[in-house]
Amino acid sequence: MIEANIIKSKALELGADCVGITRPHPVPYNAEFQRWLKSGYAGDMEYMARLQNERFDPSVLFPGAESIIVIGLNYFPDQQDKIEELKKYNVASYAWGEDYHFVIRRLLKRLRSSLKEIKPKINGRICVDTAPFMDKYWAQQAGLGWIGKHTNLVSRQFGSWLLLGSLIVNETVDSYDNPHRNFCGKCRACLDSCPTSAFPDSHILNATRCISYWTIESKSLSIPEEIGKNMNRWVFGCDICLTACPFNRFEKPNQTEAFKCRDETSLLETGQVIKLTENQFITKFKSSPISRPHLSGIIRNIKAAE
What we know:
This protein is an alpha+beta fold. It has 2 domains: 144 residues, no CATH class; 117 residues, no CATH class.
């Protein structure tokens, strides 16, 4: 057994903005997820249908699982990063700096190593949203916040601006956090803010109507006109429903250097990225989320947003 306070102090010392710990158990939303898939709301994201047993049971994903440590990193931009004089297009703020998968994975690896110094036999599985793992569900179970009606985590400390990572470990902890209460109430601000009507109901996202889906995930050669005319010049991701949340009164500038806005981001915001060769694009964005749709996808997005 390890003391929860030791785990939390280590995580915060390494750069996490918040941390919680919960016990693993089967996730009770398998039926809802299957209905979501059958509705076609996943679009081209075929990987969402894979590894269902692992996705809904951490003990299958990581045999011997005893505890789940969930960390959150605040990525809300500071005032200097928000300067927009030359901005023509919009880029989701999580993508302004280094790819958060790399940042959070590094932190969790260091945390795992630190815990091994205390308990040499401890082992753990790192999950940073590419694993078949219900990240936001476990963040709520660990007390970091609750899943808002826009399907993203909402925090009373940081608003809608937390990136999540988890470490499943084969060791019990002396105390666990309680699940966070949902404070959305009757508010519909996030749902009503979406210009493409991507939410058929609370807590349900139709990805095939989502700007983030079309500008990042979709493999289509073109974006439907109905989506394009409502993109509001978002060419990589979208922050509209996140920004609408009233709990953003608690937002605060991030303190993670890796999330600070990189010079390369301005190439998208000004549209100059279309002048790059494929090799130049790969070089400039190799450690950025912006590399995901490739240069051809970025050009597609810009054309649709014009």
